[in-house]
Write a structure and sequence with these properties.
By secondary structure, the protein is an alpha/beta fold. A hairpin with a 2-residue loop joins strand 4 and strand 5. The protein has eight helices and twelve strands. The strands form three sheets. It has a six-stranded mixed sheet, sandwiched between helices. A four-stranded antiparallel sheet has the order 2-1-4-5. Belongs to the ABC transporter superfamily. Ycf16 family. GO terms for molecular function: ATP binding; ATP hydrolysis activity. Keywords: ATP-binding, Nucleotide-binding. Pfam families: ABC_tran.
């Protein structure tokens, strides 16, 4: 854990949310402090990706109850672009391709939009090129990818590395990685994980959404949360992920049912 204080970056209380009229999140609670890495695990359909999209402000998802506080502010009052400029970053499980928009132009517009929000001057093309080339080494990416259309023709691993490059450029306060490990071979997984580790520091926080223990072999979480049925059932340390790998999720469900029955 990098945390050296008690600065709460994200506080989620009794969050409920739906999509297309179907309730997905059903009373989710989570607190994330500066310097922490949280892993959220759970079976398909448990609400993990819904949670990430709700945090990012995806318009298809409707919050029906609860509250989300980000750096002391009501996150639910902010539009998606305002959340991004304020320091929330979502790395998508399936990054989309945008033909005709160069990777470099996309990065420059996003970066300068955040600088403007912070009251800083925009970087000119030359200074930005120097900066982005420095960041390329974090994900071992060939500079030739900058001139290509955003994600067009990229392999799965290249798309995920490009997401981490975006994160490196934007330096968010809260990085949310939605199954960034899916579809990666072992070499790409190591590169992406190393990039995330380089970007984690005492003043930001990272939430990893994953199905598999293997990502956590390379990125050590401070907390592992098990999510099912739209809420977090249990929380533990990194050893919890190993137990899930060995035993599956049934024992968590059984313990939860026993606790509910005892109330």
């Amino acid at each position: 854990m990098i945390n050296e204080g008690s600065n709460v970056i994200l506080s989620v209380r009794n969050l409920t949310a739906e999509v297309d009229g179907i309730q997905i999140l059903k009373g989710l609670n989570l607190e994330v402090k500066a310097g922490e890495i949280h892993a959220i695990m759970g079976p398909n359909g448990s609400g993990k990706s819904t949670f990430s999209k709700v945090l990012a402000g995806h318009p298809d998802y409707t919050v029906t109850g609860g509250e989300i506080t980000f750096q002391g502010k009501n996150l639910l009052e902010l539009e998606a672009e305002e959340r991004a400029r304020s320091g929330i970053f979502l790395a998508f499980q399936y990054p989309i391709e945008i033909p005709g928009v160069s990777n470099l132009d996309f990065l420059r517009v996003a970066y300068n939009s955040k600088r403007k929000h912070q009251g800083l001057e925009e970087l000119d093309a030359f200074d930005f090129d120097d900066l982005v080339n420095q960041k390329l080494d974090i994900v071992k990416m060939d500079p030739a990818f900058l001139s290509r259309s955003l994600n067009e023709g990229f392999s799965g691993g290249e798309k995920k590395r490009n997401e981490i490059l975006q994160m490196a450029m934007l330096e968010p306060m809260l990085g949310i990685l939605d199954e960034t490990d899916s579809g990666l071979d072992i070499d790409a997984l190591k590169i992406v994980s190393n990039g995330v580790n380089q970007l984690a520091h005492a003043e930001n926080a990272i939430v990893l959404i994953t199905h598999y223990q293997r990502l956590l072999d390379y990125i050590t979480p401070d907390y592992v949360h098990v999510m099912e049925g739209g809420r977090i059932l249990t929380t533990g340390g990194k050893e919890l992920a190993l137990e899930l790998e060995a035993r599956g999720y049934d024992w968590v469900r059984e313990e939860e049912a026993a606790e509910v029955g005892a109330r």
